[in-house]
Amino acid sequence: MEDIKFKYRDELKQRTKQFVLRVIKLYQSLPKTPEAQIIGKQLFRAATSVGANYRAACRARPNAEFHSKISIVIEEADETMFWLEFLWEADIIKQELLQNLYNENEELLKIMSVSRKNSQKK
């Protein structure tokens, strides 16, 4: 059972890392207009925080520390969704070009929310 838990954790660490790399590539492709760069930097900061804080949560010792770190991941994933929505609502990037990235973020957010909820039960 413990092996499955570690395998799942490692897969999710890799998944969050790939998500961050996709956001970096998106940021690099943004137009050089002031509004695109400002929104892009906010997106970049929030998305990289998702990956970094998930790794920190995996190293958390007491359950309270895990709960705290995973809560940060959830906040940052929600903020990432906000900035992705702004990119298409401001007509900087077409929604269909962002949809897969948005969907991945939404899935990660749901997974992290379940993890936090389960950590409260322990």
Write the layout of secondary structure elements.
Layout: H1 2-29, H2 34-59, H3 63-89, H4 95-121
What would you say this structure looks like, in words?
This protein is mainly alpha-helical. It has one domain (2-121): Up-down Bundle (de novo design (two linked rop proteins)). The protein has four helices and no strands. The longest helix has 28 residues, at 2-29. It starts with a helix and ends with a helix. The mean pLDDT is 94.
CATH architecture: Up-down Bundle
* Helix amount: over 70%
So what's the CATH class?
A: Mainly Alpha
Low-confidence stretches: none
The oligomeric state of the chains shown is single chain
SS element count, helices: 4
Q: What is the radius of gyration?
A: 15 Å
Can you tell me the number of structural domains? 1
End-to-end Cα distance, whole Å, is 16 Å
Write down the CATH topology.
Answer: de novo design (two linked rop proteins)
Major sheet attributes: none
Work out the number of β strands: 0
Measured by DSSP, the beta-strand proportion falls in under 5%
What is the succession of H and E elements? Answer: HHHH
Broad shape: elongated
* Strand-pairing-aware structural class: mainly alpha
Report the mean per-residue pLDDT as an integer: 94
CATH superfamily: 23S rRNA-intervening sequence
